[in-house]
Design a protein that fits this description.
Helix content is 30%, strand content 11%. The chain is an alpha+beta fold. It has one domain (1-19, 36-54). A two-stranded antiparallel sheet has the order 1-2. It has one helix at 38-53, and strands spanning 6-8, 11-13. The radius of gyration is 11 Å and the shape is globular.
């Protein structure tokens, strides 16, 4: 089960529901290939949150 949102490094991460199509959360030409596992996606989101907080 995915939590509604996660706070990491002062940035709110809102994961999409597993049933949501990836394309609905991507900009055209952006990254539109889903991660293989939830933990990998969460790790990438947390790294992006740390980067954006700098």
């Amino acid at each position: 089960m995915t939590p509604e949102h996660i706070i990491h490094g002062g940035t709110r991460i809102v994961p999409p529901a597993a049933s949501d199509p990836v394309a609905s959360h991507s900009a055209p030409g952006g990254y539109d290939i889903p991660f293989a596992v939830h933990a990998e996606a969460l790790r990438a989101a947390k790294a992006a949150a740390v980067f954006s907080a700098q």
